[in-house]
Design goal:
- With about 350 residues, the chain is α/β, with parallel strands linked by helices.
- It folds into two domains: about 230 residues, Rossmann fold, CATH 3.40.50.11780; about 90 residues, Dihydrodipicolinate Reductase, domain 2 (2-Layer Sandwich).
- It is built from eleven helices and 14 strands.
- The strands form three sheets. Strands 2-3-1-4-5-6-10-11 form an eight-stranded mixed beta sheet, sandwiched between helices. A three-stranded antiparallel beta sheet has the order 8-7-9, covered by helices on one side. Strands 12-13-14 form a three-stranded antiparallel beta sheet.
- Helix 2 packs parallel to helix 6 and helix 5 runs parallel beside helix 7.
- The chain is globular and about 65 Å long.
- The two termini are about 15 Å apart.
């Protein structure tokens, strides 16, 4: 007689708004990333909040962020700074140091974009600081970036105890992402929120310049009368797949994929058979219904908002025999008209591991 299967815990929402900030730290390199929940905590630990990391963390918290890892940039071996984040659970990556390191900015930004994709994180990129709008558009095209990256221009101006200075925009943008996630949901465009803690962008851009930057996939920051300083657009750096053209659509997909992947880890203890497939489908459907009810998906009925497949159409016989479970999810995000399809693969217990034929 087959053993009954225990009810499983529901799939829980994965975090989406923990930032990682990479740049010059007071006192130099640290042995491990430092998790801070306020600017004062960063100052107590490092002795200062001056410099690019302090500026980025300040703007992150000013704009609604709550948790950030800070990592000292090793300028001689900058890619090691990304490796230091390998064991941290961050979701938004910022490297304000790229703004002042034109010699390695492209290489570092490309590496950061790839790292973000590997980690199901989102990279908020800063262009080199000395670039004009036209040069930023050219740099953006050479940099690429992919679906898990967005690029913002111009820099921001902030007031400090010593006067005013220009800073990278990524810390403020990451804070807006976090604030919108917490207040309204990861599916809401960051352009819905106003920038805080800043005197505004360093330059005012003419409409024609906005058009040049937009065609290059660069998001601009501008002043909107009666609405304050805003992120004017929300495009990713994806140049091929139109499904991932918009920041909230891509971040919603990353959130769904990570939540389902973590929420179905119990399948590794189960045989890969139709009963398991039904359990997995039910768990994912329940999770997606919560997103739909919260307004994160289009459609007046659940079947118009999403679908879930986990059966012989998503797996070959070899997949089943090898214990690989594949769940295919389609969701109707608020922006595009079509369904966006996500595939999540997990390993289950193979029958022969239990001594069964």
């Amino acid at each position: 007689m087959a053993r009954p299967r225990r009810p499983r815990d529901p799939i829980m929402a994965a975090p989406t708004s923990v930032a990682a900030v990479v740049g010059a730290l007071p006192g130099g390199a640290r042995d491990a990333p430092l998790l801070v929940t306020s600017l004062s905590e960063l100052e107590r630990t490092t002795g200062s909040v001056d410099g690019e990391v302090g500026d980025a963390v300040r703007l992150f918290f000013d704009n609604g962020g709550r948790r950030a890892y800070v990592v000292a940039l090793d300028e001689a071996r900058p890619l090691r700074s990304l490796d230091a984040l390998a064991d941290t659970n961050f979701n938004i990556l910022t490297i304000p140091a790229t703004a002042r390191l034109p010699g390695i900015a492209t290489r570092l930004a490309v590496a950061a974009a790839l790292f973000a994709e590997e980690r199901r994180a989102f990279y908020v990129a800063d262009p080199p600081a000395e670039r004009t709008a036209q040069n930023v558009a050219r740099w953006a095209r050479s940099f690429g970036g992919g679906p898990n990256t967005a690029l913002y221009f111009p820099r921001l101006r902030i007031r400090t105890t010593g006067g005013e200075r220009d800073v990278a925009a990524s810390g403020a943008v990451a804070g807006i992402y976090a604030r919108m996630d917490q207040e309204r949901g990861v599916w809401v465009s960051p352009s819905e929120a106003s920038l805080q803690g800043t005197l505004g962008p360093t330059v005012e851009l003419a409409d024609s310049v906005h058009g040049t930057l937009s065609s290059a996939g660069v998001n601009t920051i501008r002043h909107i009368p009666s609405r304050g300083f805003r992120l004017w657009s929300a495009r990713t750096r994806e140049e091929i797949d139109p499904e991932w053209k918009y920041v909230p659509v891509r971040r919603l997909a990353l959130f769904i994929e990570e939540s389902i992947d973590q929420g179905l880890q119990w399948v590794v203890f189960e045989p890969n058979d139709p009963r398991l497939w039904a359990q997995a489908r039910a768990a994912v459907q329940t999770f997606l219904q919560t997103i739909w009810r919260a307004g994160g998906l289009k459609g007046t009925k659940p079947e118009q908002a999403f679908f879930v497949r986990c059966d012989r159409t998503t797996m070959t016989q070899n997949d089943i025999d090898d214990g690989r479970l594949t769940v295919e999810v389609g969701v109707a995000p608020l922006k595009p008209a079509e369904f966006v399809v996500i595939r999540i693969g997990l390993w289950t217990r193979r029958e022969k591991c239990e001594g069964r034929p």
